[in-house]
Amino acid sequence: MKIDRLLRQIDIGEDQEYEFKSADGGLPKDIWETISAFANTDGGYIILGVIEKRDKYLSKINCIV
């Protein structure tokens, strides 16, 4: 996935194909529920390093090389 597509999706928010997780301190425990849900449907993307604040998603991504 290209960076512009990723940042655009973060602006749009989560949907049935994209799930955001903050992942502070490592993988969140509820990631396995998301993986299972995606495995039982058409799949999707789990984006780590994104937090939700007041109905808006914020990326912790400063630079992707």
Please, could you describe this protein's structure?
The chain contains two helices and four strands; from the N terminus they run H-E-H-E-E-E. It has about 60 residues and is α+β, with helices and mostly antiparallel strands. Strand 1 (about 20), helix 2 and strand 2 form a beta-alpha-beta unit. The model has no long low-confidence stretch (mean pLDDT about 85). Helix content is about 30%, strand content about 25%.
Summary of the model, kept short:
It contains two helices and four strands. The chain has helices spanning about 5-10, 30-40, and strands at about 20, 45-50, 50-55, 55-60. The chain starts with a helix and ends in a 6-residue tail after the last strand.
SS field, number of helical segments: 2
| CA-CA gap between termini | 13 Å
Task: Evaluate the radius of gyration.
Answer: 12 Å
What's the mean pLDDT score? Answer: 84
Count of beta strands: 4
Tertiary shape:
globular
List the helices and strands in order: HEHEEE
The fraction of residues assigned to DSSP E strands is 15-25%
Helix content: 25-40%
Main beta-sheet annotation: 2 strands, parallel
Structural class: alpha+beta
Low-pLDDT residue intervals, each spanning 5 or more residues: none
Biggest sheet: strand arrangement: 1-2
Features:
29% helix, 2 helices, single chain, 65 residues, two-stranded antiparallel ribbon, alpha+beta
Q: How is this fold's topology laid out?
A:
Blueprint: H1 3-12, E1 18-21, H2 31-39, E2 45-48, E3 50-53, E4 56-59
Parallel strand pairs: 1-2
Antiparallel strand pairs: 3-4
